[in-house]
């Protein structure tokens, strides 16, 4: 996903431009730190105290110039309008926020999109509602796979997301699949010796039909007109 995000940023904004980035649901700050290291001004919003603590610890080990480009605000993803004026950011990340149960997810996305300046880009990472049965099926959980064929009405597939992004003023520009072949790997799995080859295959599959359509996650980039 980091490769996909970098590809879109490089293709959309002038080389060397210091972007204003908002990371909604920052988590442990992995993407935020990556972008700050690239020279951008990054603001993270996160409500989980443990994640904030982990992010602060990671940032503390960085050079002063990078730390100065980082800011963390403790708050909920739906409260962006409380903290920022509309149009305040060039890039807004909303990665994984909609993977949890969220009240009125479309309204949350609309609020996040309002933070984009004209021409700004929204990077959205969600579970792929079009392929909800894949993980359970590949793991041999047949009951779980059958249940997943009837996903909740709050789940997002590509068609619904395309409509939602158009409706909130950030129409879909491009999309990728994430975790096409590796979704069943255990969270604590030892990294393979051929990790570069794994990443190359996942990168290729994530941008190639029909593989990207059955990925565990969808990474969509919308652009504010």
Automatic annotation (TrEMBL):
One of its GO terms (molecular function) is methyltransferase activity. Residues 22-123 form the Methyltransferase type domain. InterPro entries: Methyltransf_11, SAM-dependent_MTases_sf. It comes from the Bacteria. Keywords: Methyltransferase, S-adenosyl-L-methionine, Transferase. PANTHER family: METHYLTRANSFERASE (PTHR43464), UBIQUINONE BIOSYNTHESIS O-METHYLTRANSFERASE, MITOCHONDRIAL (PTHR43464:SF19). It holds the Pfam family Methyltransf_11. CDD domains: AdoMet_MTases (cd02440). This is Methyltransferase. It comes from Streptomyces griseorubens. GO terms for biological process: methylation.
């Amino acid at each position: 996903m980091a490769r996909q995000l970098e590809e879109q940023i490089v293709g959309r904004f002038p080389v060397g431009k210091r972007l204003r980035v908002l990371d909604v649901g920052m988590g442990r700050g992995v993407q935020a730190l990556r972008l700050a290291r690239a020279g951008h001004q990054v603001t993270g919003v996160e409500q989980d105290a443990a994640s904030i603590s982990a992010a602060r610890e990671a940032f503390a080990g960085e050079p002063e110039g990078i730390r100065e480009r980082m800011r963390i605000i403790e708050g909920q993803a739906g409260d962006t309008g409380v903290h920022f004026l509309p149009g305040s950011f060039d890039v807004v990340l909303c990665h994984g926020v909609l993977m949890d149960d969220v009240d009125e997810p479309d309204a949350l996305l609309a609020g996040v999109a309002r933070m984009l300046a004209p021409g700004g880009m929204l990077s959205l990472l969600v579970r792929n509602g079009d392929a909800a049965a894949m993980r359970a099926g590949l793991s041999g959980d047949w009951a779980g796979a059958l249940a997943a064929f009837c996903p909740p009405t709050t789940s997002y597939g590509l068609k619904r997301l395309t409509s939602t992004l158009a409706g909130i003023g950030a129409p879909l520009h491009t999309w990728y699949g994430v975790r096409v072949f590796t979704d069943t790997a255990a969270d604590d799995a030892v990294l393979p010796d051929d990790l570069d080859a794994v990443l190359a295959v996942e990168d290729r599959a994530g941008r190639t039909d029909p593989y990207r359509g059955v990925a565990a996650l969808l990474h969509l980039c919308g652009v504010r007109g």
